[in-house]
Amino acid sequence: MRKIGTLPESSATLFRDFLFAEGIRSDVREDSDDAFGIWILAEDDIEKAKAHFASFEESMDDPAVKLKADAAGRQRLREIKEAKESLKRFERQEDNWHERNIAGIGHFTFALIVISAIVAVLTRLGTNIDPVRFLFISERIPPPGTPWWAGLVEVRSGQIWRLITPIFFHGGILHILFNMLWLKDLGSAIERLQGTRVIALLVLGTAAFSNIAQYAVSGPRFGGMSGVVFALLGYVWMKSKFDPWSGYYVAPSTVAFMIGWLVICFTGLVGPIANGAHLAGLAAGCAVGYAGAKFRHGA
Protein backbone atom coordinates (compact mmCIF):
# COMPACT_ATOMS: atom_id res chain seq x y z
CA MET A 1 0.00 0.00 0.00
CA ARG A 2 1.37 3.40 -0.98
CA LYS A 3 0.26 7.03 -0.65
CA ILE A 4 0.06 8.96 -3.93
CA GLY A 5 -1.10 12.41 -2.73
CA THR A 6 -3.52 14.42 -0.60
CA LEU A 7 -6.82 16.20 -1.24
CA PRO A 8 -9.50 17.95 0.82
CA GLU A 9 -11.91 15.49 2.44
CA SER A 10 -14.79 15.85 -0.03
CA SER A 11 -12.45 15.66 -3.03
CA ALA A 12 -10.57 12.71 -1.53
CA THR A 13 -13.82 10.77 -1.07
CA LEU A 14 -14.90 11.60 -4.62
CA PHE A 15 -11.52 10.49 -5.97
CA ARG A 16 -11.66 7.24 -4.01
CA ASP A 17 -15.05 6.44 -5.57
CA PHE A 18 -13.75 7.43 -9.00
CA LEU A 19 -10.83 5.02 -8.57
CA PHE A 20 -13.25 2.30 -7.49
CA ALA A 21 -15.13 2.78 -10.77
CA GLU A 22 -11.80 2.31 -12.57
CA GLY A 23 -11.19 -0.97 -10.75
CA ILE A 24 -8.57 0.48 -8.37
CA ARG A 25 -8.98 -0.15 -4.64
CA SER A 26 -7.88 2.69 -2.38
CA ASP A 27 -8.24 4.09 1.11
CA VAL A 28 -8.60 7.66 2.42
CA ARG A 29 -6.79 8.59 5.63
CA GLU A 30 -6.64 11.91 7.43
CA ASP A 31 -3.16 13.48 7.39
CA SER A 32 -3.93 16.89 8.93
CA ASP A 33 -6.69 19.50 8.97
CA ASP A 34 -8.59 19.22 5.69
CA ALA A 35 -5.81 17.13 4.15
CA PHE A 36 -6.59 13.51 3.44
CA GLY A 37 -4.10 11.06 1.98
CA ILE A 38 -4.98 8.78 -0.93
CA TRP A 39 -3.54 5.31 -0.34
CA ILE A 40 -3.50 2.72 -3.14
CA LEU A 41 -3.85 -0.86 -1.89
CA ALA A 42 -2.26 -2.80 -4.77
CA GLU A 43 1.24 -2.01 -5.94
CA ASP A 44 0.30 -2.84 -9.53
CA ASP A 45 -2.24 0.01 -9.54
CA ILE A 46 0.15 2.75 -8.39
CA GLU A 47 1.14 4.18 -11.77
CA LYS A 48 -2.39 4.11 -13.14
CA ALA A 49 -3.68 5.81 -9.98
CA LYS A 50 -0.99 8.50 -10.21
CA ALA A 51 -2.06 9.27 -13.77
CA HIS A 52 -5.68 9.64 -12.66
CA PHE A 53 -4.62 11.79 -9.70
CA ALA A 54 -2.65 14.15 -11.95
CA SER A 55 -5.70 14.91 -14.07
CA PHE A 56 -8.34 14.65 -11.36
CA GLU A 57 -8.14 18.23 -10.02
CA GLU A 58 -8.89 19.59 -13.49
CA SER A 59 -11.80 17.24 -14.11
CA MET A 60 -13.36 16.88 -10.64
CA ASP A 61 -16.08 19.41 -11.49
CA ASP A 62 -17.01 17.49 -14.64
CA PRO A 63 -20.60 16.15 -14.15
CA ALA A 64 -19.63 12.91 -15.88
CA VAL A 65 -16.84 12.32 -13.36
CA LYS A 66 -19.15 13.01 -10.43
CA LEU A 67 -21.85 10.76 -11.86
CA LYS A 68 -19.38 7.91 -12.32
CA ALA A 69 -17.95 8.39 -8.82
CA ASP A 70 -21.40 8.52 -7.22
CA ALA A 71 -22.42 5.25 -8.89
CA ALA A 72 -19.18 3.63 -7.79
CA GLY A 73 -19.68 4.90 -4.25
CA ARG A 74 -23.09 3.29 -4.05
CA GLN A 75 -21.66 0.03 -5.36
CA ARG A 76 -18.83 0.17 -2.81
CA LEU A 77 -21.32 0.69 0.03
CA ARG A 78 -23.36 -2.29 -1.22
CA GLU A 79 -20.23 -4.44 -1.15
CA ILE A 80 -19.39 -3.33 2.38
CA LYS A 81 -22.94 -4.10 3.52
CA GLU A 82 -22.81 -7.48 1.81
CA ALA A 83 -19.47 -8.25 3.44
CA LYS A 84 -20.88 -7.47 6.88
CA GLU A 85 -23.95 -9.65 6.24
CA SER A 86 -21.72 -12.46 5.01
CA LEU A 87 -19.59 -12.23 8.16
CA LYS A 88 -22.67 -12.40 10.36
CA ARG A 89 -23.97 -15.37 8.39
CA PHE A 90 -20.62 -17.13 8.68
CA GLU A 91 -20.53 -16.53 12.45
CA ARG A 92 -24.02 -17.98 12.83
CA GLN A 93 -22.97 -21.01 10.79
CA GLU A 94 -19.91 -21.46 12.99
CA ASP A 95 -22.12 -21.36 16.10
CA ASN A 96 -24.28 -24.16 14.68
CA TRP A 97 -21.37 -26.24 13.36
CA HIS A 98 -21.38 -28.89 16.07
CA GLU A 99 -25.16 -29.18 15.96
CA ARG A 100 -25.14 -29.98 12.24
CA ASN A 101 -21.99 -32.05 11.90
CA ILE A 102 -20.53 -35.33 13.08
CA ALA A 103 -16.83 -35.01 13.91
CA GLY A 104 -16.61 -32.07 11.52
CA ILE A 105 -18.45 -33.90 8.72
CA GLY A 106 -21.90 -32.80 7.57
CA HIS A 107 -24.74 -35.24 8.30
CA PHE A 108 -25.63 -35.80 4.65
CA THR A 109 -21.98 -36.06 3.65
CA PHE A 110 -21.41 -38.55 6.47
CA ALA A 111 -24.34 -40.66 5.23
CA LEU A 112 -22.86 -40.78 1.71
CA ILE A 113 -19.52 -41.96 3.12
CA VAL A 114 -21.18 -44.65 5.26
CA ILE A 115 -23.24 -46.00 2.34
CA SER A 116 -20.16 -46.07 0.12
CA ALA A 117 -18.24 -47.95 2.81
CA ILE A 118 -21.05 -50.52 3.23
CA VAL A 119 -21.17 -51.12 -0.52
CA ALA A 120 -17.37 -51.47 -0.59
CA VAL A 121 -17.59 -54.18 2.07
CA LEU A 122 -20.45 -55.99 0.34
CA THR A 123 -18.61 -56.02 -2.98
CA ARG A 124 -15.16 -56.70 -1.51
CA LEU A 125 -13.97 -53.46 -3.08
CA GLY A 126 -15.55 -54.22 -6.43
CA THR A 127 -14.50 -57.85 -6.84
CA ASN A 128 -18.03 -59.22 -6.30
CA ILE A 129 -20.80 -57.18 -7.89
CA ASP A 130 -23.64 -59.69 -7.43
CA PRO A 131 -24.96 -58.18 -4.15
CA VAL A 132 -25.25 -54.70 -5.65
CA ARG A 133 -26.39 -55.22 -9.21
CA PHE A 134 -29.48 -53.19 -8.38
CA LEU A 135 -27.22 -50.15 -7.88
CA PHE A 136 -25.92 -50.06 -11.46
CA ILE A 137 -27.60 -47.68 -13.84
CA SER A 138 -28.60 -50.74 -15.86
CA GLU A 139 -27.89 -54.48 -15.77
CA ARG A 140 -28.25 -54.84 -19.51
CA ILE A 141 -25.60 -54.02 -22.06
CA PRO A 142 -27.44 -52.52 -25.03
CA PRO A 143 -26.77 -53.89 -28.53
CA PRO A 144 -24.27 -51.89 -30.63
CA GLY A 145 -25.87 -48.85 -32.23
CA THR A 146 -28.63 -48.53 -29.63
CA PRO A 147 -29.20 -44.89 -28.60
CA TRP A 148 -28.33 -44.40 -24.94
CA TRP A 149 -31.83 -43.24 -24.01
CA ALA A 150 -33.27 -46.48 -25.40
CA GLY A 151 -31.05 -48.66 -23.23
CA LEU A 152 -32.11 -47.56 -19.74
CA VAL A 153 -34.80 -50.22 -19.50
CA GLU A 154 -34.88 -50.45 -15.72
CA VAL A 155 -34.99 -46.67 -15.25
CA ARG A 156 -37.79 -46.32 -17.78
CA SER A 157 -39.72 -49.04 -15.93
CA GLY A 158 -39.65 -47.00 -12.71
CA GLN A 159 -36.31 -47.84 -11.03
CA ILE A 160 -35.33 -44.17 -10.90
CA TRP A 161 -32.79 -44.70 -8.11
CA ARG A 162 -30.44 -46.29 -10.64
CA LEU A 163 -29.67 -42.81 -12.00
CA ILE A 164 -28.06 -41.99 -8.63
CA THR A 165 -26.80 -45.20 -7.02
CA PRO A 166 -23.76 -45.95 -9.25
CA ILE A 167 -21.95 -43.31 -7.16
CA PHE A 168 -21.74 -45.80 -4.25
CA PHE A 169 -19.83 -48.49 -6.14
CA HIS A 170 -16.01 -48.31 -6.04
CA GLY A 171 -13.49 -50.64 -7.63
CA GLY A 172 -10.52 -50.57 -5.27
CA ILE A 173 -9.13 -49.11 -2.07
CA LEU A 174 -7.47 -46.12 -3.75
CA HIS A 175 -10.65 -45.37 -5.69
CA ILE A 176 -12.84 -45.12 -2.60
CA LEU A 177 -10.24 -43.39 -0.42
CA PHE A 178 -9.58 -40.68 -3.02
CA ASN A 179 -13.28 -40.01 -3.51
CA MET A 180 -14.25 -40.11 0.17
CA LEU A 181 -11.48 -37.71 1.23
CA TRP A 182 -12.55 -35.16 -1.37
CA LEU A 183 -16.22 -35.72 -0.57
CA LYS A 184 -15.57 -35.16 3.14
CA ASP A 185 -13.89 -31.79 2.54
CA LEU A 186 -16.02 -30.40 -0.29
CA GLY A 187 -19.35 -31.85 0.83
CA SER A 188 -18.92 -30.75 4.43
CA ALA A 189 -17.94 -27.23 3.36
CA ILE A 190 -21.10 -26.85 1.26
CA GLU A 191 -23.27 -28.41 3.96
CA ARG A 192 -21.79 -26.09 6.58
CA LEU A 193 -22.20 -22.93 4.51
CA GLN A 194 -25.52 -23.62 2.79
CA GLY A 195 -27.15 -26.48 4.63
CA THR A 196 -28.23 -30.06 3.99
CA ARG A 197 -30.83 -29.23 1.34
CA VAL A 198 -28.31 -27.57 -0.97
CA ILE A 199 -25.69 -30.34 -0.72
CA ALA A 200 -28.40 -32.99 -1.20
CA LEU A 201 -29.77 -31.32 -4.33
CA LEU A 202 -26.25 -30.83 -5.70
CA VAL A 203 -25.26 -34.45 -5.13
CA LEU A 204 -28.48 -35.94 -6.47
CA GLY A 205 -28.65 -33.67 -9.51
CA THR A 206 -25.01 -33.92 -10.53
CA ALA A 207 -24.93 -37.67 -9.81
CA ALA A 208 -27.79 -38.27 -12.25
CA PHE A 209 -26.28 -35.95 -14.86
CA SER A 210 -22.77 -37.41 -14.67
CA ASN A 211 -24.03 -41.01 -14.57
CA ILE A 212 -26.17 -40.50 -17.67
CA ALA A 213 -23.20 -38.90 -19.43
CA GLN A 214 -20.96 -41.86 -18.57
CA TYR A 215 -23.63 -44.36 -19.63
CA ALA A 216 -23.92 -42.60 -22.99
CA VAL A 217 -20.14 -42.93 -23.43
CA SER A 218 -19.37 -46.42 -22.13
CA GLY A 219 -22.52 -48.31 -21.20
CA PRO A 220 -23.64 -49.46 -17.73
CA ARG A 221 -20.46 -50.94 -16.21
CA PHE A 222 -19.10 -48.03 -14.20
CA GLY A 223 -19.32 -46.59 -10.71
CA GLY A 224 -17.83 -44.18 -8.24
CA MET A 225 -18.31 -40.82 -6.56
CA SER A 226 -15.80 -39.07 -8.85
CA GLY A 227 -18.39 -37.34 -11.00
CA VAL A 228 -20.01 -35.85 -7.90
CA VAL A 229 -16.62 -34.89 -6.46
CA PHE A 230 -15.71 -32.99 -9.63
CA ALA A 231 -19.15 -31.34 -9.53
CA LEU A 232 -18.65 -30.18 -5.94
CA LEU A 233 -15.19 -28.90 -6.84
CA GLY A 234 -16.61 -26.93 -9.78
CA TYR A 235 -19.37 -25.51 -7.59
CA VAL A 236 -17.01 -24.36 -4.83
CA TRP A 237 -14.54 -23.02 -7.42
CA MET A 238 -17.16 -20.83 -9.13
CA LYS A 239 -18.68 -19.65 -5.85
CA SER A 240 -15.27 -18.62 -4.50
CA LYS A 241 -14.37 -16.86 -7.76
CA PHE A 242 -17.61 -15.03 -8.55
CA ASP A 243 -19.17 -14.75 -5.07
CA PRO A 244 -16.21 -13.95 -2.82
CA TRP A 245 -18.40 -13.09 0.18
CA SER A 246 -20.05 -16.51 0.14
CA GLY A 247 -17.45 -17.97 2.51
CA TYR A 248 -16.12 -20.45 -0.04
CA TYR A 249 -12.46 -20.75 -0.93
CA VAL A 250 -10.49 -23.25 -2.97
CA ALA A 251 -6.77 -22.81 -3.56
CA PRO A 252 -5.68 -22.36 -7.21
CA SER A 253 -3.18 -25.20 -6.68
CA THR A 254 -6.07 -27.52 -5.73
CA VAL A 255 -7.99 -26.63 -8.88
CA ALA A 256 -4.85 -27.08 -10.97
CA PHE A 257 -4.21 -30.51 -9.43
CA MET A 258 -7.75 -31.73 -10.10
CA ILE A 259 -7.82 -30.40 -13.66
CA GLY A 260 -4.43 -32.02 -14.22
CA TRP A 261 -5.76 -35.32 -12.86
CA LEU A 262 -8.78 -35.03 -15.17
CA VAL A 263 -6.47 -34.62 -18.17
CA ILE A 264 -4.24 -37.53 -17.09
CA CYS A 265 -7.30 -39.77 -16.80
CA PHE A 266 -8.20 -39.00 -20.42
CA THR A 267 -4.79 -40.28 -21.57
CA GLY A 268 -5.60 -43.82 -20.43
CA LEU A 269 -2.35 -44.07 -18.44
CA VAL A 270 -4.20 -44.88 -15.22
CA GLY A 271 -6.50 -47.53 -16.66
CA PRO A 272 -10.23 -47.44 -17.42
CA ILE A 273 -11.70 -44.29 -15.89
CA ALA A 274 -15.20 -42.82 -15.98
CA ASN A 275 -14.02 -39.75 -17.87
CA GLY A 276 -17.49 -38.89 -19.10
CA ALA A 277 -18.75 -38.65 -15.51
CA HIS A 278 -15.73 -36.58 -14.47
CA LEU A 279 -16.14 -34.05 -17.26
CA ALA A 280 -19.93 -33.87 -17.00
CA GLY A 281 -19.75 -33.47 -13.22
CA LEU A 282 -17.19 -30.66 -13.42
CA ALA A 283 -19.22 -28.86 -16.10
CA ALA A 284 -22.46 -29.21 -14.13
CA GLY A 285 -20.89 -28.04 -10.87
CA CYS A 286 -19.29 -25.03 -12.53
CA ALA A 287 -22.55 -24.11 -14.23
CA VAL A 288 -24.60 -24.32 -11.03
CA GLY A 289 -21.98 -22.45 -8.99
CA TYR A 290 -21.61 -19.69 -11.57
CA ALA A 291 -25.37 -19.31 -11.99
CA GLY A 292 -25.87 -19.22 -8.22
CA ALA A 293 -23.21 -16.55 -7.78
CA LYS A 294 -24.64 -14.36 -10.54
CA PHE A 295 -28.23 -14.84 -9.35
CA ARG A 296 -27.25 -13.84 -5.82
CA HIS A 297 -25.82 -10.57 -7.12
CA GLY A 298 -28.73 -9.97 -9.49
CA ALA A 299 -26.49 -10.00 -12.59
Describe this structure in words.
By secondary structure, this protein is mostly helical. It contains 12 helices and 5 strands. The protein has helices spanning 9-21, 46-59, 63-95, 97-100, 107-122, 148-151, 153-156, 173-194, 196-218, 226-242, 252-267, 275-296; strands at 2-7, 26-32, 35-40, 101-102, 105-106. The strands form 2 sheets. The protein has a 3-stranded antiparallel sheet with strand order 1-3-2, covered by helices on one side. A two-stranded antiparallel sheet has the order 4-5. α5 (107-122) packs antiparallel against α8 (173-194). The longest helix has 33 residues, at 63-95. The radius of gyration is 26 Å and the shape is elongated. Mean pLDDT is 84; it is low at 96-102.
**Tally of structural domains:** 2
The CATH architecture classification of the largest domain is Up-down Bundle
Strand residue content: 5-15%
- Topology pattern, helix = H, strand = E: EHEEHHHEEHHHHHHHH
Return the CATH topology of the largest domain.
Rhomboid-like fold
Helix run count: 12
Q: Order of strands in the sheet with the most strands? A: 1-3-2
Shape: elongated
Helix-strand category: mainly alpha
CATH class category label of the largest domain: Mainly Alpha
The chain-level mean pLDDT equals 84
The level of helicity is 55-70%
Residue stretches low in confidence (pLDDT < 50, at least 5 long) are 96-102
Task: Tell me the span between the first and last alpha carbons.
Answer: 31 Å
Strand segment tally: 5
- Output the radius of gyration: 26 Å
CATH superfamily of the largest domain: Rhomboid-like
Largest beta-sheet details: 3 strands, antiparallel
